[in-house]
Specification:
Layout (H helix, E strand, L loop, with lengths): L4 E4 L2 E4 L6 H4 L12 E6 L3 H14 L3 E4 L11 E6 L2 E6 L11 H11 L3 E7 L4 E8 L2 E8 L7 E5 L5 E4 L1 H8 L11 H9 L16 E8 L1
Antiparallel strand pairs: 1-2, 3-6, 3-7, 4-12, 5-6, 5-12, 7-8, 8-9, 9-10, 10-11
Length: about 220
C-alpha cells in the first residue's frame, strides 16, 4: 500500500485519505435540484395584493380570468398562496403562452404595495439562481448567479441613489459567514437566507402543497 506525503514550508506530513470535516459542512446546491420556477413573496394583505395584481396586469396589457373557484384550472394559472407570514405569487406552468411574473412586474407589484418583497427563482437552461428584494417598495438588492454563460452579479441599491456591484458568489459567501476563499456555495441556502425575514415556513419551488387563496388565467 502506497503512502503519499505533502511537503511544503510547514514540513512533511502524510496525506489523509478522507476529506477534512470543513468541507463536509458545505455543498454547492446540495440536495434535490430546484426545477424551473419564479415566485414573488410579499408582506401585504390579500385584498391589497389582488388590487396590485389587477393594476400590474392592466399596465402590461394582460387580461386576468379569475379561476379561484375552479381547482381544475390551477395547473396553468397564476396563483396566490400563503406560506407562513407571507403571500406568494407563483405561476404553475413555465411553458405558458403568457406570463405575469418577471423582473418588471415584480417591481411594479412591490412598488404599488410599498411593502417588503422578494422575487426569486431558478432558470434551468443556464443554471441561473436569482433573487431581488425590496424594502417598503424600494429595491435594495438584486443577486443573480449562472452556471452557464449568463447574468452573474450582486447589486446593492443605496438610499442615496447609488448602486454598488460585485461578484455574486463573494457577496453570498460573506452574507452566509463563510470563508471568502471557499469554492463551495449552496446558492439555494443563500436564497432561503434572504427569505428568512419574510417568515416563510419552508421553501417550496413547487407550491402544490400550499393553500391557494386566489388563481387567475393569464391571457395577452
Amino acid at each position: 500500500m502506497s503512502q503519499w506525503f505533502l511537503i511544503d514550508r510547514d514540513g512533511r506530513r502524510p496525506v489523509r485519505s478522507t476529506h477534512p470535516d470543513f468541507f463536509s459542512s458545505f455543498d454547492y446546491d446540495g440536495g434535490p435540484t430546484w426545477p424551473q420556477f419564479v415566485q414573488l413573496a410579499v408582506d401585504a394583505s390579500l385584498n391589497h395584493v389582488l388590487k396590485a395584481v389587477e393594476t400590474t396586469a392592466m399596465v402590461n396589457g394582460l387580461d386576468l380570468e379569475d379561476v379561484s373557484t375552479r381547482p381544475d384550472a390551477w395547473d396553468s394559472a397564476l396563483v396566490i398562496v400563503r406560506n407562513g407570514a407571507s403571500l406568494i405569487l407563483a405561476e404553475t406552468d413555465p411553458d405558458a403562452d403568457y406570463h405575469f411574473l418577471h423582473d418588471e412586474s415584480a417591481s411594479q407589484v412591490a412598488g404599488l404595495l410599498a411593502c417588503n418583497a422578494a422575487f426569486y427563482g431558478h432558470e434551468t437552461s443556464s443554471g441561473t439562481v436569482f433573487v431581488s428584494t425590496w424594502e417598503t417598495g424600494a429595491i435594495d438588492l438584486t443577486w443573480c448567479d449562472s452556471l452557464e454563460p449568463g447574468p452573474s452579479f450582486a447589486r446593492v441599491f443605496h438610499r442615496n441613489g447609488t448602486c454598488t456591484e460585485e461578484d455574486p458568489r463573494g457577496f453570498a459567501l460573506r452574507a452566509l459567514d463563510m470563508p471568502a476563499t471557499s469554492p463551495l456555495l449552496d446558492r439555494y441556502a443563500f436564497v432561503e437566507f434572504l427569505l428568512k425575514p419574510f417568515g416563510i415556513e419552508e421553501m417550496h419551488p413547487v407550491i402544490d402543497e400550499l393553500p391557494v387563496l386566489a388563481a387567475f388565467k393569464v391571457r395577452g
